[in-house]
Design goal:
Layout: H1 2-7, H2 10-39, H3 45-81, H4 84-100, H5 104-169, E1 172-173, H6 177-189, E2 197-201, E3 208-210, E4 216-220, H7 221-226, H8 229-244, H9 247-260, H10 265-289, H11 294-311, E5 320-321, H12 327-335, H13 347-353, H14 359-364, E6 382-391, H15 402-417, E7 423-426, H16 439-450, E8 454-457, H17 470-489, E9 497-498, H18 509-521, E10 525-526, H19 535-547, H20 551-580, E11 586-590, H21 594-598, H22 600-609, E12 612-614, H23 617-621, H24 632-639, H25 646-653, H26 666-675
Parallel strand pairs: 2-4, 6-7, 6-11, 6-12, 7-8, 9-10
Antiparallel strand pairs: 1-2, 3-4, 3-5
Helix pairs in contact: 2-3, 2-5, 2-10, 3-10, 5-9, 6-8, 8-10, 8-11, 9-10, 11-12, 15-16, 19-20, 19-26, 24-25
Length: 680
C-alpha cells in the first residue's frame, strides 16, 4: 500500500519528469558551451572560465525551473478538475449551436476537415500517450535509482570533505618565520583581504587550499625542501589567487552539482572544463605577479607533479591544488609567450564571433612557435652567439637519463622564450656506440634539432687534443661526425661547425694546421669562443646540491652564478674595448645544465640589460675581429695545455699581459674539490 501511494505521488512524478527533461537540457547547454569555447579560443582563460561558469549555472537552474513548473502545473490541474464537468457540457452546447448556424453542404465540409484534423492530432496524441504511459510506469524506479545514486555520491563527497578536515587539523605546523614573512608579503602583493593561514603538513604531498570562510593553504613539509624558494613562492601565489577568486566555493558548488546530476556525462564535462580553465586563469595570474618567471613556474609545477606521482597520493575533488587540470597543457601555455591566444582557432569561428577585431591581431598571433627560435630582438647594439657543449646534457644526477631529458626540454623552452638561436655540439659517445644509437639520448638530440636549433660537433669522446696523437684525435672526431650527419640527414640538414673540446687546439702548430685542413675538407669550420667561463663548475655544484636536496645551497649557487657571469662579461667586454675599441660580436660557451634553465630569467635578463641581442653563430663569426692573427707558437708557449678564449689568444699573440679573470666562488670550488669525479 505504501509503495502504491509513493508510486502515485505527484512529487515522484514531477521528479521523474524533471530527470528526463534534464537529459536534453544539460546536453543542450554543453553543446552551446562547446561552440562558445571554439569561438573564445583567442581570448583569455578568464573569458573561457566565465563562459563555463555561465553554462554550469544554466545546467543547474534549468532542471530546477522545470521541477517548479511541473509542480505548479500539477496544482492547476487539480484546481480545474472540480469544474471539468460543467465545462464539458458547455462545450457540447456551443458546438451544437455552431453546427445549426451553417447550411448542410458547409456542415459536411466542416465535419470532413474536422475529422482529418482529429485523425492527425490523434496520431500524435497516441504516440505521446504511449510514451507517457510507459515512462510513467517506471518513474518510481527511476527516482529510486536516482536517490540511491545521490546517496552514494553524497557519501563520497562527505568523505572527501572529512578527509580535507583531517589534513587541515592533523600533523600541521607553522612554517619558519622567514616563510611567514614571505607569505605575508605575497598576501599584500595580491591584495588578499581575507584572513588566510599558511601551514606545513606532514600528511599531504601536494599544496592545497582548504575552506573558503577561513581558508588555509597547506604545503607539504617535503616541498619546502625539494623545490627552490622561488619556485615555491609561485606555487603559493597560485593558491592565493584561487582564494582571491573564491574558487574553493565554486569547486564546492561543482561537487554538489556532480552529486545531484551524477548520471549526466555532460554535467561532468562542463565541470571538468571549469576546472581546466580555472587552472589556466590562475596560472595567468601568477605570471602577471612574477614577471619573467615562466621557466621557474613551469619547473615548479613539473617538480611538484614528480613529487606527487612518487607519493601516489590522490586528493579529494573538493580540494583546489596547484597541480590540477591538464598539467602538460598548462606547462605548454605557461612557456608560450602569448598564453591567451590559441593560434589554431579557425578563421570562420573567430570571424563569426569577433568580426570587429582588427586583422592585425590575427597577423601578430599567427606565428608558429618554432619560428621564434631565430627571431631576434632589435634592441641594443651588442651581439652574442651561444654554443652549448655538449648535447645531450651530461648525466650528473641520480635519475639520469630522465633528468637529462627534462633538462633538454626546459632548455629548449628557455631558449625559445629569450629567442636565442643557439647551437648545440654533439658528443657522440653519449648517443651511440659507433654502430647503433641509444634511443633515449638520441631522441634528446632530435628534440634539439626539431626545435629549430643548429647542431655542431665536438669529439666522439671529450678528449684533449694536447694529449692525443693526431691520427687518434681525427678518428675520434670523424666517428662523431658520422653520427651527427646521420641524425641531421633525417631532416635533410647539414653540418657546419666544430668546437674544440676544452678549447684546446693541440700541442703543435703542425698538428693544428693539419687538423683544420681536415676540417676544411669536410666543410667544417672551428668555432672561436671569446667568452670562456667556468659555468661548468657551477653546474656541477648545482647538480650535486640537487642530488642532496640541499635547496639552500642551490639558491646560493644560482645567485653566485649570475654574479660570476656578470663579472665575466665585464672582463671580456674590457678586452673588446682594449683590443678593438668597440664591442665586437661575442661568442660564449655554456653547458646544457639545469642551472642554466633554473637561473635563465636572471642570466638572460642580465645579458639583455647589457644591450645584447642574441644572434646565430654565422652572424657572430662574420665580424672582422675573428680574422685577427693568432700566433699559435707564442700562445702555446705561454699557456701550455690549457684551453683559453680567443680574446686571450689574441692578447698573448700581441705579446701583452692577460687580465685577471674572475674567480670561482668558494662554495662552488668546495663542491668541486669534495665531489669531483676521480682522475679530475
Amino acid at each position: 500500500m505504501n509503495w502504491e501511494i509513493l508510486a502515485n505521488s505527484k512529487l515522484i512524478e514531477n521528479l521523474g519528469w524533471t530527470l528526463l527533461h534534464s537529459l536534453w537540457q544539460i546536453a543542450l547547454v554543453a553543446l552551446v558551451l562547446a561552440f562558445a569555447r571554439r569561438i573564445l579560443r583567442p581570448f583569455s582563460a578568464n573569458a573561457r572560465y566565465a563562459a563555463a561558469l555561465a553554462a554550469f549555472a544554466f545546467a543547474v537552474v534549468l532542471p530546477v525551473l522545470t521541477f517548479v513548473q511541473l509542480s505548479r502545473n500539477s496544482n492547476l490541474i487539480a484546481a480545474q478538475t472540480n469544474n471539468s464537468g460543467a465545462s464539458v457540457n458547455e462545450k457540447v452546447r456551443q458546438d451544437a449551436a455552431r453546427r445549426e448556424a451553417f447550411p448542410a453542404d458547409e456542415k459536411l465540409k466542416i465535419e470532413t476537415e474536422a475529422a482529418g484534423q482529429k485523425k492527425a492530432r490523434g496520431s500524435i496524441e497516441n504516440l505521446r500517450s504511449v510514451f507517457n504511459e510507459n515512462f510513467a510506469r517506471v518513474l518510481p524506479f527511476t527516482v529510486a535509482l536516482w536517490l540511491v545514486g545521490v546517496a552514494f555520491s553524497g557519501a563520497r563527497f562527505a568523505g572527501g570533505v572529512w578527509q580535507l578536515h583531517v589534513y587541515k587539523t592533523r600533523r600541521v605546523s607553522a612554517p619558519s618565520a622567514e616563510w611567514q614573512e614571505k607569505f605575508a608579503a605575497l598576501c599584500e602583493k595580491l591584495k588578499i583581504t581575507q584572513s588566510v593561514r599558511l601551514l606545513r603538513s606532514n600528511l599531504l604531498e601536494t599544496p592545497v587550499v582548504v575552506g573558503w570562510f577561513k581558508p588555509v593553504i597547506l604545503v607539504p613539509a617535503s616541498v619546502f625542501l625539494q623545490i627552490s624558494a622561488r619556485e615555491l613562492e609561485t606555487i603559493i601565489a597560485h593558491e592565493l589567487i584561487h582564494i582571491r577568486r573564491f574558487d574553493a566555493f565554486v569547486n564546492f558548488a561543482q561537487n554538489a552539482a556532480e552529486t545531484v546530476f551524477f548520471y549526466h556525462p555532460c554535467m561532468w564535462w562542463i565541470s571538468r572544463v571549469i576546472r581546466v580553465e580555472r587552472e589556466f586563469a590562475a596560472d595567468a595570474g601568477v605570471l602577471e605577479i612574477f614577471e619573467n618567471s615562466r621557466i621557474v613556474y613551469a619547473s615548479a609545477l613539473a617538480n611538484l607533479e614528480e613529487i606527487r606521482s612518487s607519493a601516489n597520493q590522490t586528493l579529494p575533488r573538493y580540494a583546489t591544488a596547484a597541480n590540477g587540470g591538464n598539467l602538460m597543457q598548462r606547462i605548454t601555455k605557461i612557456l608560450q609567450k602569448n598564453t591567451g591566444i590559441k593560434r589554431s582557432a579557425s578563421a570562420w569561428s573567430a570571424g563569426f564571433a569577433f568580426a570587429l577585431i582588427p586583422a592585425v591581431l590575427l597577423a601578430v598571433f599567427s606565428f608558429n612557435q618554432t619560428s621564434l627560435v631565430n627571431a631576434q630582438k632589435k634592441t641594443g647594439g651588442r651581439k652574442l652567439a651561444v654554443g652549448f657543449v655538449s648535447i645531450p646534457p651530461l648525466d650528473r644526477t641520480a635519475n639520469a637519463p630522465k633528468d637529462a631529458d627534462a633538462t633538454v626540454r626546459l632548455l629548449i623552452k628557455t631558449l625559445k622564450q629569450y629567442k636565442v638561436p643557439a647551437i648545440g655540439f654533439l658528443q657522440g659517445g653519449m648517443v651511440s656506440d659507433g654502430e647503433k644509437l641509444y634511443p633515449v639520448r638520441a631522441d634528446m638530440v632530435r628534440l634539439w634539432r626539431d626545435a629549430g636549433f643548429e647542431i655542431g660537433i665536438g669529439g666522439y669522446k671529450h678528449i684533449w687534443f694536447y694529449d692525443t696523437p693526431y691520427e687518434d684525435y681525427v678518428a675520434n672526431v670523424e666517428k662523431n661526425e658520422q653520427i651527427a650527419r646521420n641524425l641531421l640527414a633525417e631532416k635533410n640538414l647539414t653540418l657546419k661547425y666544430f668546437s674544440y673540446p676544452f678549447l684546446n687546439t693541440g700541442k703543435s702548430a703542425e698538428d693544428r694546421a693539419r687538423f683544420e685542413k681536415w676540417l676544411s675538407d669536410k666543410n667544417l669550420e672551428p668555432v672561436k669562443y671569446t667568452i670562456d667561463n667556468s659555468e661548468w663548475m657551477y653546474s656541477f655544484a648545482y647538480d650535486a646540491a640537487r642530488n642532496d636536496n640541499d635547496t639552500n645551497a642551490m639558491a646560493e649557487i644560482r645567485a653566485a652564478f649570475v654574479r660570476y657571469m656578470s663579472e665575466i662579461f665585464d672582463h671580456y667586454e674590457a678586452y673588446s674595448q682594449e683590443m678593438f675599441g668597440r664591442d665586437i660580436a661575442q661568442t660564449m660557451v655554456l653547458s646544457p645544465s639545469r642551472l642554466i634553465t633554473d637561473s635563465s630569467d636572471e642570466l638572460f635578463g642580465m645579458i639583455e640589460k647589457r644591450g645584447y641581442r642574441f644572434v646565430s653563430m654565422d652572424e657572430a663569426l662574420s665580424d672582422d675581429a675573428y680574422q685577427t692573427d693568432e700566433s699559435f707558437v707564442k700562445t702555446r708557449e705561454r699557456i701550455g695545455k690549457s684551453g683559453i678564449s680567443w680574446f686571450e689568444r689574441w692578447t698573448l699573440a700581441a705579446g701583452k699581459k692577460l687580465r685577471d679573470e674572475p674567480k670561482v666562488d668558494v662554495l662552488v670550488q668546495k663542491f668541486w674539490d669534495e665531489k669531483k669525479p676521480k682522475g679530475k
